Amino acid sequence: MNRFLRTLGVLLLLAVCAPAFAAPGADVDLVKQRVAKVGVLRGEFNQDKQVAGFKNPLRSQGRFVLAQDRGVIWTTLKPFPSEVVVTRDRILSRQRDGSSRVELDGRQQPAMRSVNAIMFALMSGDAQALSAQFVVKVEALPDNGWRMQLTPRSAMLAKVFSALSLSGDRYVREVQITEANQDVTRIHFAALSETPAQLSADEGRRFE
């Protein structure tokens, strides 16, 4: 299974287990003030997954499109071309050459609908949304930078995650997910752009 789909599976479990509680405060407000609110954000990613007991990490890289009103297109270019599209109602995984396709329908798995919001929160630095599932601690950094440390609120979440952290400035630059088994995924975002502000015709079709 695509590594990104595995990460989504962990996030789906988070969505199912998360308590309906939010505690916005001064720290959360700092991040809200510094992170850009954009309709469409494009960029590149490098992802390393360090599996406990293995010397070398699993590496992948590619590009993404985050559209606030549609979802996320996550296109892996290396080591194997593939694409995952996350919308409000489904997760679609496919090979770029069209040779295979896996679709998970949110109408059959209602909890999946929460994955969209969690993905947006991680990629857009939505501290208030993340505070529904985690205790959030924020550190202000120079040049309008920030770092968030996230600790699971519930014992059930703690069985999945040890900790999460995000850092950035106007945008989220890095996400680190430490699972309870000590596997660590680091995602670094680069070449981020808010333009063009609308999806292209091709990007729009890929959400369909």
Brief characterization of the structure:
This is Outer membrane lipoprotein carrier protein LolA. With 208 residues, the protein is of the alpha+beta class. It has helices at residues 3-17, 26-34, 113-124, 127-130, 155-158, 201-206; strands at 40-50, 58-67, 71-78, 82-87, 90-94, 101-105, 134-141, 145-152, 161-168, 172-179, 184-193.
Describe this structure in words.
This protein has helices at residues 3-17, 26-34, 113-124, 127-130, 155-158, 201-206, and strands at residues 40-50, 58-67, 71-78, 82-87, 90-94, 101-105, 134-141, 145-152, 161-168, 172-179, 184-193. The chain is of the alpha+beta class. The protein has a single domain (3-206), classed as outer membrane lipoprotein receptor (LolB), chain A (Clam), CATH 2.50.20. Strands 6-5-4-3-2-1-11-10-9-8-7 form an 11-stranded antiparallel β-sheet. Helix 1 (3-17) packs across helix 3 (113-124).
